[in-house]
Amino acid sequence: MDKPINIAYESHPLFFSPAYMQMRLNGNLGPKHYPSPKGASADLDGNVTFTFYAPEAHSVSVSGIGGELGETRHPLIKGEDGYWTLTLHNVKPGFHFIRFYVDGTSVGNPQAPFAYGAHESLNFVEVPDKNDDTYIWRDVPHGTLHMELYRSSKTKNVTNCWVYTPPSYNKDLDRRYPVMYLHHGGGETEADWIWLGKINYIADNLIAEGACREMIIVMNCLYDINYDNPGEFLAGDFDSLLTKDCMPLIDSRYRTIPETGSRAIAGLSMGSYHSAQTACNHPGLFGYVAMLSGSFDDRWYRWVNCRDVFSGSELFKKETRLFYMSVGTDESRLYSQIAENMDFLRKCGVACDYFECPGYHEWTVWRKSIRNFMTLIFKES
What's the domain count of the chain? Predict the structure, then answer.
């Protein structure tokens, strides 16, 4: 029997431990389950096999949605059993969104994992990384994920956040913990850092190694939208939602350390803009700030000018232990901006650090970025 694949590679919101099965009638004996080929599978050598059952189709193809896999459509070959198949070689390790096309129309593959990104449900494939097991399930003590519902005081919408508590949280009941507020990107959800980012496994494994402090991690939905004023890049007043509604809730329900040096705020892409803007709008509230695949240059947002805060707020410079930026080296537009951003921070006297790794605007980069950030924070708390 083949060694079971690590659960982190295939878990998704619809099926934690996917069973690749189909149910068919079995004569008068009723329905029976039959094994079904995986819609997308990968091995350690970067060989990725795609399978799609479409006996009446004239063509089936598969592509990425940009990034490492690109958007080129690769045709699958039809077999006599109605299954279409294709194997791509030398695919780099990491998380890859994929699209299947049947007769030119994009469709979901029911036998491949699903996730949410780019404001839609998409299939994905995870190529194992033989040199990195930080983000997969390991036999170490595990923390707990909690779901908290609360109401926005501004829009009156009911929203949700996920809260990770570390392994010792339910054992050492007198202990208090620092908090990292961690945010998703545009077109994603508050659950994506769990299902796509594997943040709970990253935290479990770093804590087990002694590589980071035990911490509470809070993941919010960034969309507190007023639908009477649509079309904003930063959709809704998340600054208000976080500081007036979410943070008081977390401090009241969890054993936090409500001090600047024990608070971090971080986000990827659109979430990085949210994080930087909120930190700059409230100097002294967060001791650690991280922008993953984002810059503080004016693009589609600005309710506070970050550069003015960096250069002019002595409180921000005093209380910010670390302003952290990261980027994938293949993302040329952002990569060219980060060096200037870091120079500006240094000239202003803001404590800062930088991380880069090969990759694009995608989860493979963000996992490595947040892992590195977590090893640097809460050293003084």
Answer: 2
